[in-house]
Design brief:
single chain, 234 residues, alpha/beta, 7-stranded mixed β-sheet, 7 strands, 19% strand, globular
Length: 234
């Protein structure tokens, strides 16, 4: 890593803000060790007073799969032609999140997107493409935590966790570049799913500060702040 890229990550992470949504209802089979502290409500656009670090720290000791970021949505007109290939930009976030977990000193037993992609290539016809999950069953469950996640998504996630002897799946559902008074900002919607119970355990949104010009560093900032949520508070 060059000194310039390292400084770019630090600058991006220092400018990001975390806005966390409410937790979904835990599954009845959840154990105390995997029951994260409910995340506080936050009003979109209101600066958070510091980062609520550690609210997902209980998942650090759990076996979990980390799916690739699934969708990119760009609604800032001036940025649309600057993003480049959407999958490549989402891949930047995936790489930055794995880097941020290591950079935070977290020792995890997680399978990251490259691990899932290799497994899918070794098991053609058995696993889904981890970059193209069927997300349609997810919104109804996010609206009503009493509902179970339906197939095919439930089966896709259960297959991957089975291959890696895991139970939980971290799914970055959408990375959006949205307009605001400053120009625009990045926002990530992410969920954690108990694949055995087919329930959403936690859902949240992470947003960067508004900036005038598009910068690839926003992906690093969002990834770093997501990693903050898994870092035990000190």
């Amino acid at each position: 890593m060059t000194a310039a890229s390292f400084l770019l990550r630090i600058a991006a992470r220092s400018s990001a803000l975390v806005l966390v949504a409410a937790c979904a209802r835990p599954a009845a089979t959840q154990t105390p060790a995997t029951n994260p502290t409910p995340a506080p409500h936050a009003q979109t656009g209101v600066p958070a007073q510091g980062t609520p670090g550690g609210i997902l720290a209980s998942f650090v000791t759990e076996a979990m799969i980390v799916l690739p970021a699934q969708r990119l949505h760009v609604s800032v007109p001036d940025w649309a032609d600057k993003v480049g290939d959407p999958r490549a930009y989402l891949g930047t976030f995936d790489d930055e999140f794995a880097f941020a977990i290591r950079d935070h000193g977290l020792k995890v037993h997680w399978a990251f997107p490259p691990d899932l992609a290799r497994s899918a290539r070794r098991n053609p016809g058995y696993t889904a493409d981890p970059y193209e999950l069927t997300l349609a069953p997810l919104p109804p469950v996010e609206r009503d935590p009493d509902k179970l996640i339906a197939d095919p998504l439930a089966g896709q996630l259960r297959t991957f966790t089975g291959l890696f002897d895991a139970r939980y799946a971290l799914v970055p559902v959408e990375l959006a570049l949205v307009p605001d008074p400053a120009g625009g900002h990045a926002a990530l919607h992410v969920v954690i799913i108990d694949t055995r119970a087919a329930r959403v355990m936690w859902k949240g949104d992470i947003a960067s500060d508004g900036v005038r010009d598009f910068s690839p560093a926003m992906a690093a900032g969002i990834a770093g702040r997501l990693a903050d949520l898994f870092t035990p508070a000190r």
